[in-house]
Amino acid sequence: GIKYYGPLDGHDIESLANMFEFAKTLDKPVLIHVLTTKGKGYEPAEKDPTRFHGIGAFDPGDPDSKASEGQSWSDAFGEILLGLAQKDERITAISAAMIDSTGLGPMKAALPDRVFDVGIAEQHAVSFAEGLALSGQKPVAAIYSTFLQRAYDEMLTEVCLEKLPVVFAIDRAGVTGQDGETHQGIYDIAYLSSMPGMTIMCPRDKATLANMLEKALAMSAPVAIRYPRGKAPALKSEPGDGTPQIIKEGSSVLIISDDNMLSEALEAANILEKNMIRDWKLVSVAVADIGTIKPLDEAFITYALRNYEVVAVVEDGVEEGGLGSAVCSYACALQSGCRVIKIGWPDAFIEHGTVAQLRKRYGMDALGIAKKIDSYSGGGSLEKKA
């Protein structure tokens, strides 16, 4: 009962418009089959559609002219995983129609029989990973945060319920910026935290990612490693291993940050130390890298709540149900008397914009974070600061 028309030239606008007008006159379901060429009219994009699927600003006259800004998180992940896979034949990789975008291209070229592209079917990708884990393999599912939401049920009932060792490499975690509302990866901390047995890690640099990935592949339970879009920062300290680490010392205020927000947290600490006054003196602000979001390191959180007047939790995820909520719940149970501040993305859909623009707009940049800590702590020193 379905009427079919096509295939049609998807670049012939006039013919397509006529066909759509005709289709509206029919009183039955219509399937219009349209063929297009990705990047039509721009030769570099036609020749390399994968590379030009999602790309920042560039000179169209010389698309290769943009200087490299360092290795991306996706490429760093792919390089590390390939190295581990070459040492352990049980390691396999899965993606959902995004092999190159998730950094798996080199592994696909080197080990083609151990990299699987299941198409645009994230649910199947997770179920397939379950099957590989049951057969003794070490599957790594590399999927964008926003797309992994489609496989919530499979993660919960097929992986977590079965306590299977599947590693989820969650690319584009946190606000991704210009991909818009549907692509903001700010929900994974909240929904993964509700899954029994799930471990959630967040690396601050490539070396830490390597340590976490190796650790995750050695575990006998599901692990999620989340990292943002963009360039992996250069190593500025000893690499982390998943345990909380004090990155900057301080005595009165402690900012606990996930790794996506660590640079903003460090700058916020500097702003506070120059401007925030408590008991007639400037505050001393420490910054900690949480490393592992779940399970919560209760020994470290207990130490934080008992040794600082204020603990602020900053995360590149929704404020409700995330790391901050977990720390608040623990603080209530401990009855520490410490003031705990949650700083995350609001209960709203975050619109299109660059990451920098969105962080400033929602008070998630260094100054915004500093203002929130100052305000929620009973201050006001930063209220008039631009």
Polypeptide structure, described:
- A hairpin with a 2-residue loop joins strand 11 and strand 12.
- Helix content is 35%, strand content 20%.
- Helix 11 crosses helix 12 (323-334).
- The chain has a seven-stranded mixed beta sheet with strand order 4-3-5-6-8-7-14, with helices on both faces.
- It is α/β, with parallel strands linked by helices.
- The model has no long low-confidence stretch (mean pLDDT 92).
- The chain has helices at 13-23, 43-47, 73-87, 105-110, 122-134, 145-148, 152-160, 188-193, 206-217, 262-275, 298-307, 323-334, 355-361, 366-376; strands at 3-9, 30-35, 91-95, 115-117, 138-144, 167-171, 199-201, 223-226, 245-248, 253-257, 277-278, 281-282, 285-289, 292-294, 310-318, 339-345.
- The radius of gyration is 24 Å and the shape is globular.
- The chain contains 14 helices and 16 strands.
What's the topology here?
Layout: E1 3-9, H1 13-23, E2 30-35, H2 43-47, H3 73-87, E3 91-95, H4 105-110, E4 115-117, H5 122-134, E5 138-144, H6 145-148, H7 152-160, E6 167-171, H8 188-193, E7 199-201, H9 206-217, E8 223-226, E9 245-248, E10 253-257, H10 262-275, E11 277-278, E12 281-282, E13 285-289, E14 292-294, H11 298-307, E15 310-318, H12 323-334, E16 339-345, H13 355-361, H14 366-376
Parallel strand pairs: 1-2, 3-4, 3-5, 5-6, 6-8, 7-8, 10-13, 10-15, 15-16
Antiparallel strand pairs: 7-14, 9-13, 11-12
Helix pairs in contact: 3-9, 5-7, 10-14, 11-12
